[in-house]
Amino acid sequence: MKYGYFDDLQREYVVQRPDTPAPWVNYLGSPEYGAIVSNNAGGYSFAKSGANGRILRYVFNQFDQPGRYLYLRDNASGDFWSASWQPVGKDLEKYHCECRHGMGYTRMLAEYSGIQSEAVYYVPKDSAHEVWELTVTNRSTERRELTLTGYAEFTNHSNYEQDQVNLQYSLFISRTLFDTNRIMQQIHGNLDAQAADEMVDGKTVTERFFGLAGAQVASYCGDKDAFLGRYHTYGNPKGVAAGDLGNVLSYNENSCGALSCVVELEPGESRTVAFLLGMKPSAKAAELLQGYRNAADRCEKELKELKEEWYGRLDHLRVDTPDPAFNTMINTWNAYNCFITFVWSRAASFIYCGLRNGYGYRDTVQDIQGIIHLEPEMAREKIRFMLSAQVDNGGGLPLVKFTHNPGHEDTPDDASYVAETGHPAYRADDALWLFPTVYKYVAETGDKEFLDQVIPFANRDEGTVYEHLKRAVQFSLAHLGPHGLPAGLYADWNDCLRLGANGESTFVALQFYYALRILKYFAEDRGQQEDCRWLENELEEAGKKIQALCWDGDRFIRGFTEEGERIGAAQDPEANLWLNPQSWAVISGLASEEQADEAMRKVFDRLNTPYGAVLMDPPYHAHAFDGALAVIYNPGTKENAGIFSQSQGWLILAEALLGHGERAFRYFTENAPAAQNDRAEIRRLEPYCYGQFTEGPASKHFGRSQVHWLTGTASTVMVGCVEGILGLRPDLNGLRLAPAVPKQWKSFTMEKDFRGRKLHIRVENPNGKESGFTSLNVNGQELASNYIPEKLLTAENEILLVL
Ligand code: GLC
């Protein structure tokens, strides 16, 4: 079943049926001032932290309320409705609407009883406030008088837990005031006698505002209960029904901002007003509102800026393939999803309440990979930041605090770090993610000097980027398990797999092998002979050990527990085949051709489903070893044999590296949100963003996806598609073109920006291949292989690859 469609030209997803199986949301602004808005206007806002800077209330685990509500009332009939279908929820026979989620904005269009409305929600570029622009048009043949009301439900405390849980305190610190065109909410307002900005008991007066521009306020309300009325709901607030908000303010009650204005419209006439929301003192709010007097013009200009910014980013790679779902994901939605995870990490969604007090090391380093081909400079700054969160012993800080202060941080070796972050120890994989990320950045840009930039370590000392990478290798070497493979430490990529501090993970061993290869490639390019020899030896050693210990005849095992028990071996009753060691054996370059074929076929036969491959099989139930935390989840869920979406990205890449275009593309399609647009009742999540996992065959809800938006899936699948399926594989000195595509793709094109040049690439596939190379022509010159040395490139390049 479909609830909407992709408008690729506008880069919008259009929700046509508002009763979606879950709230389908969009992100506005940035964590500086962030807002999440659903297709029914549900959602919340915050400044800097979803947990500590919460401005708008949202009740989790309840169906999508409250939100940024805009009500319209016909003053002749007394009938009222909302600019989004909910919260009033008019009969869909009479109420026609669509919600358009775009790049950094969301538009709600509705028509009811001859009145058309358009609400646009956005956070202007580089701003710390949000705008709800509302335009109403009279489509009837009579003159109409409408009351327009905006409603914002403030939290009583910026900390969302205090607001939700500690009511004996938070109810009694908030109050609202009214001035001209705005409701002001003060938290700890009684501290206003103290000098400005002075902290009293760690608290200052926090001021939020909800204001109206473009019309006079006719009535207002700052008290949630008074606005709703006893035993009323958001669907029929008393003040809205009456057309008069009663001019009530809160004092020891739940605060809100509600403002009404009255507009009169001749047939065909339109009127635009803007509601503004933010965290500013009254005078600043007044000034800001003043700037929106001419609401329509100002909003148009700001929206144009937003679009230009987003389009500018996304246009660095444009593909046109025979598959519309692939195009929309790569050109717009997967790319947008990558930027959202890049910026927001795991901070705030309808699942993440904002409580994480920092950046997860591995998640953040992985997230960077998804935007390197689009915004390498942005990526570089984050890479620098993450390198500065690497301890001088080479390990990564499992959690990088928002207040991260390079050179001065304590580490997992210090009790203080453990107490503050709750992370008891290093994880085996964290710093190893740096290798593919740094490699991708240097290869995309050709910026080899980056490796010589000096960056502090988290606790003390500093070193070049190259030195940072060396130390990451040394960290793994200093933490080897009994078989000589990297030790499991606290965990590897799989949060639910505790092999024990001295256990050994095949996944980490393969990451380590890959890291050695990348570092060796850098060392060779830099002419560092001694390092080359050292790395060559380590590679040989590691390769031999992994081969001897982890290959089980037809699959790679998952690892060893501290007690030496093999996990993921063929004879295990549960979890005897794991996905990641198979795909990573290919990605890392360790697997021989035969092993790769065998292991990947096993994955396809045993783990694959119509929604992607499960993480392992069979799920843990009765035979979980002590460290198999996944058993706490219902079978078919998350790490317990769910279809972990991030792993689909590695699977796509691995198959593509092997030249298996058919399978690579099949894996893409099985798990791609856009490819499931017509199965929304099964998938449930937004058809335009990835989720953390899809429930596997062992679940009662096989095919349902969960944990929207903020997931490593976005970047990993992006890499799988761009490097893998599209085969855009830059290295230090040029670009290899090695697509792996479905046989029936006759041709496709790619417009790529590469190191300041434009590449117009056309791939032709006259003989129905799934990969391979027949000829490559660059600007009229035939090349001998599918590799384009950078020196052949000019400002504009016409490139034709024949498979
Ligand atoms: C979650 C975590 C990530 C972890 C993955 C697998 O997505 O954010 O760090 O690697 O689960 O357990």
UniProtKB/TrEMBL annotation:
Organism field: Allofournierella massiliensis
Glycosyltransferase among keywords: yes
Domain of life: Bacteria
Glycoside hydrolase family 65 C-terminal domain boundaries: 728-764
Keywords: Glycosyltransferase, Transferase
Keyword Transmembrane belongs to the record: no
Protein name per Swiss-Prot or TrEMBL: N,N'-diacetylchitobiose phosphorylase
Span of domain Glycosyl hydrolase 94 supersandwich: 11-294
Domain Glycosyl hydrolase 94 catalytic: start-end pairs: 310-727
Pfam families on file: GH94_b-supersand, Glyco_hydro_65C, Glyco_hydro_94
